[in-house]
Design brief:
Number of strands: 34
Radius of gyration: 43 Å
Strand order of the largest sheet: 24-27-22-18-32-31
Oligomer: single chain
Number of helices: 29
Structural class: alpha+beta
């Protein structure tokens, strides 16, 4: 058979490749909608892997060639095993052979080697079997792309009729006499030698003659004509239908072949002379196959049952899937983690032992129960926690019912999707490391499902890692340049945990937050840092009091006045996920980020915070707030519940004759001299007369105790007062030059309204524990009057360096959003001289990132043996590809037929190749190289 030339072929994605691309599109939409910075990186890495796989497939396809060898015979109702021999003059690869509908096979060709794949082609009916566009495809290591090469179409294969079961014996031979005196082909007497023909029995070959002459010859025998079977179409006239008659003749031919009896065959319009042996039987079957009329087209054969799943790839996939699911165990119910472990473990155990597959009804019942229980636990199935938990359960159920290779590949893709859902809960360096390792493992699992043989897990991981490294430059360029929208495409519930300041406070609210070292936000300043006394981060304002709780006011009041003074302070806040929708600000903001606004209580609000990490650029100045305030608001800030805390009311009434500023100072002095204690564990206060119980009883509390009691005293004394919540202080990170404000820095203070001065900040906690302002919470608890925080210990310094590195990660990877992208590109645009230069730089970046992949696609893998490399160069110079398995001598003869004018040079090159490859001569390779150069290329 002629060989298919190793041309460039047709590059097309496989079904798995299309599904992989669909996964990329889905994850990209999710990253856009939920602003997942690290998700963009992972998505673009997947896109780079998709492109890198195309380059790998292109490289493999350029070096692939093949030929098709049909079987000696085929019978209707069965299959015809076609042998496809392939050769790779490049890297090792997996190939997919397609000879027609329902006729596919896979094989693996080693680098620079050959392989043969047997493809059974269905033969549903008698006649001539024509292959429909036979082709071979070179697959990339993950099976995402295929480079299709057409195979030479062999001659139509005769499909013999089905042998009749229980057929009578062949008809008897004619009688003796003159007929018996004549002779014909038969097994009896030697009559001479003839050249070997395909199908001749090896027992008839004259091996002695072959050893002497080097050519195969066959001994011919003859027999009296009276012993020759006469198989005639007319002898089957008693049967009905052409196919029945041909089936009987086919049974007689097979019986004659089995007995070694000579026979002749007479068919309508055709007669085979007497003969014997395999070749004669094959000719008879071909003649029977071509008898017309052709039978009606048979129905399409049923799809064969899928082959048993190889255990090693499935176990590897289950392991990679378990690694992808692992972080969910830290946040989902323990029973769900246990159920998922049981499902994955049972699926893995089935690859080792013959255990029954879980019935579909049982898996469906588990899925239904999971829906019900998860909805009861989370109250919904659409939120972040509930949705990811339900997805993990469904993926594990799919793993338990995996039965085919397609299911195995689908598991790997679902594992990638599960891996990306963890980014809803964190995008830090540890999350990135988990995603990177999990992604390599799942890509390796895809690679293990590609190809017919069990490739080792270590080799698959290495291949997946190389593809990821090749995709990294393209991922980096797309990560920087891909446009980032400022808002989501749609809104879905994310169920972000509200871990920051609350909408209302009671005694004990802030002391609970003070026990958490979780970061609330980080602040970077464009100039000098404010002093500790100036680090009051204003948050919610609580003006409504019912005796127990302080709450915010939703009524509309007139806009108060704002009179700015002093220098402008510029800073940038990075708020961690889970914060309420207000922005903690210093002083009074003069510039707020887009979408944010300032309420009439001077509270900065933005509804873009909460579900993810957000960055806000703020400018502010000191200001006189509310010098002219709405009377309705002042009245509200004088209100107290009737009959509440009479002792505190009486104390405040004793100051009523003083001017308002002196009333404030009298209350502060009373706190300073009252032997109060600053603590995170104060005694529980009663529901009634809470202020009296604190001021005249326990005298131990946290900031909300002091702020609430002081605001009560001020209102009872006739001074409008309200409680302000926020944060106080912040830890300086010397490695990054920014402040870290933690949840433990949550603080509450009081604002009193004074005529002509407006709202004035008063911190009653500072009268009891001034160290809370100057030294921070940990120092103030141990030493209430500390003047400065102690220097950080060695472990704290290490933690601060790690926080600085993580902050840079958050800013440039996890938090790389639209504003930061525009800021970066704006600076680059200014450096390259305008938008045209920026566009040219972007195009150059994309081309440079794609250059390694282009080189991979164009690179040829040299053969390991230098003599074989020179022979391949020899074939390229002649532009005459070698056929798979073709020897150098046979190739040389074919090359001389094509280029007779170079016969001497070709023979010299072939002789030098034989000496270099088999002679062991040291200078033979150099002689071969020189001989190849003498061949003129065309």
């Amino acid at each position: 058979m002629a060989s298919a030339p190793p041309t460039s072929g047709t590059l097309r994605p496989t079904r798995l490749g299309v599904a992989f691309l669909g996964l990329i599109v889905v994850t990209l939409v999710g990253c856009i909608n939920y602003a997942l910075g690290l998700g963009y990186a992972v998505t673009f890495l997947l896109g780079g892997v998709w492109v890198a796989a195309a380059a790998q497939a292109t490289r493999a396809g350029r070096a692939l060639s093949g030929r098709v060898t049909p079987p000696a015979s085929a019978v209707a109702g069965g299959t015809a095993p076609f042998a496809v021999r392939m050769e790779s003059r490049g890297p090792g690869l997996t190939v997919l052979v397609r000879l027609g509908p329902g006729a596919e096979g896979m094989g693996r060709v080693l680098a620079g080697g050959t392989a043969e794949v047997t493809v059974p082609v269905p033969t549903p009916a008698r006649g001539l079997l024509h292959l429909t566009r036979p082709a071979v495809a070179a697959l990339d290591p993950l099976g995402l792309w295929a480079v299709w090469q057409p195979l030479p179409t062999p001659a139509p294969l005769p499909v013999a009729p089905v042998l009749e079961e229980g057929a009578p014996p062949p008809p008897p031979a004619p009688g003796a006499g003159e007929e018996a005196e004549r002779r014909g082909p038969g097994p009896d007497d030697f009559s001479g030698l003839r050249p070997y023909q395909p199908g001749d029995s090896p027992r008839q070959v004259s091996w002695r003659h072959a050893a002497r002459t080097g050519s195969l010859v066959v001994r011919e025998t003859d027999a009296p004509a009276g012993t020759i079977l006469a198989l005639d179409w007319a002898q089957t006239a008693s049967l009905t239908g052409t196919e029945a008659r041909l089936s009987r003749l086919a049974a007689w031919v097979e019986e004659a072949r089995r007995m070694g009896a000579p026979f002749r065959l007479t068919l309508p319009g055709r007669a085979l002379p007497p003969g014997v042996g395999e070749a004669h039987a094959a000719a008879a079957r071909a003649a029977l196959a071509e008898v017309q009329p052709w039978p009606a087209p048979a129905t399409a054969p049923r799809r064969p049952a899928p082959a048993p799943l190889p255990g090693a790839p499935l176990r590897f996939t289950l392991l990679a899937l378990a690694f992808a699911l692992a972080p969910a165990a830290l946040r989902q119910p323990a029973w769900l983690t246990g159920l998922e472990a049981v499902l994955l473990g049972y699926a893995a155990l089935r690859t080792r032992r013959p255990l029954p597959a879980p019935p579909s009804w049982a898996l469906g019942l588990l899925a239904g129960l999971g829906f019900v229980v998860l909805n009861a636990v989370y109250g919904t199935l659409l939120g972040r926690e509930a949705g990811t938990a339900l997805l993990g359960l469904l993926v594990c159920l799919k793993a338990a019912e995996t039965r085919t290779r397609r299911d195995g590949r689908l598991l790997a893709l679902l594992g990638v999707f599960v891996l990306l859902t963890h980014l809803f809960f964190g995008q830090g360096p540890l999350a990135a490391a988990h995603v990177a390792l999990g992604l390599v493992g799942l890509l390796a699992a895809l690679g293990r499902w590609t190809g017919p043989g069990p490739e080792s897990g270590l080799a698959a991981v290495g291949q997946a890692g190389r593809l990821s490294l090749q995709a990294a430059p393209l991922m980096a360029v797309l990560f920087v340049l891909f446009p980032r929208p400022d808002g989501p495409l749609w809104q879905l519930p994310v169920q972000a945990a509200q871990t920051g300041l609350a909408d209302e406070i009671t005694a004990g609210e802030y002391s609970t937050l003070a026990q958490s070292r979780d970061v609330a936000f980080r602040a970077e300043f464009g100039g000098p840092l404010p002093t500790p006394e100036e680090r009051y981060w204003r948050g919610p304002v609580y003006e409504r009091y019912d005796g127990v709780r302080w709450g915010q006011v939703r009524e509309r009041f007139g806009s108060p006045t704002v009179e700015f003074y002093g220098p402008t302070l510029a800073y940038r806040l990075t708020l961690e996920p889970g914060n309420p929708p207000w922005i903690p600000v210093l002083d009074t903001p003069t510039t707020l980020p887009p979408g944010a606004f300032l309420t009439t209580a001077f509270q900065a609000v933005s509804f873009s915070v909460g579900g993810s990490r957000t960055r806000h650029a703020v400018q502010g100045r000191a200001a006189r707030l509310g010098a002219r305030e709405a009377p309705e608001r002042l009245t509200l800030n004088l209100g107290l519940p009737s009959g509440e805390s009479p002792q505190a009311r009486a104390l405040a009434a004793s100051w009523a004759g003083l001017p308002a500023p002196e009333r404030v100072e009298a209350a502060l002095e009373w706190l300073r001299a009252g032997d109060f204690r600053y603590t995170l564990t104060p005694p529980t206060l009663p529901e009634r007369d809470r202020v009296d119980a604190f001021l005249f009883g326990s005298r131990a509390g946290f900031c909300e105790h002091y702020a609430s009691s002081f605001a009560f005293l001020m209102r009872a004394a006739g001074v409008p007062a309200r409680v302000v919540g926020g944060y106080l202080g912040g830890e300086l990170n010397p490695s990054g030059g920014y402040l870290i404000v933690r949840q433990q820095d949550a603080h509450a203070w009081v604002e009193v309204w004074l005529e002509g001065r407006g709202w004035v900040r008063v911190d009653p906690t500072a009268q009891v524990a001034p160290g809370r302002v100057t030294a921070g919470l940990p120092s103030a608890l141990a030493r209430p009057r500390a003047e400065a925080a102690p220097p950080p210990a060695a472990l704290d310094r290490v933690a601060l360096r790690f926080d600085a590195w993580q902050t840079r990660w958050n800013n440039w990877v996890a938090g790389y959003d639209g504003p930061r992208q525009r800021d970066l590109l704006g600076r680059v645009e200014a450096g390259v001289g305008g938008r045209t230069g920026l566009l040219a730089l972007g195009i150059a970046g994309v081309l440079l990132a794609a250059l390694p992949l282009l080189l991979v696609a164009r690179r040829r893998s040299p053969a390991l043996d230098p003599a074989v490399r020179q022979l391949n160069d020899f074939a390229r110079r002649l532009r005459l590809p070698r056929a798979p398995g073709e020897t150098a001598a046979a190739y040389g003869e074919r090359a001389i037929e094509r280029h007779p004018e170079q016969a001497d040079a070709i023979r010299a090159a072939v002789g030098a190749y034989h000496r270099a490859r088999y002679g062991g001569e040291e200078r033979a390779v150099a002689e071969l190289r020189a001989a190849v150069r003498k061949v003129r290329g065309r």
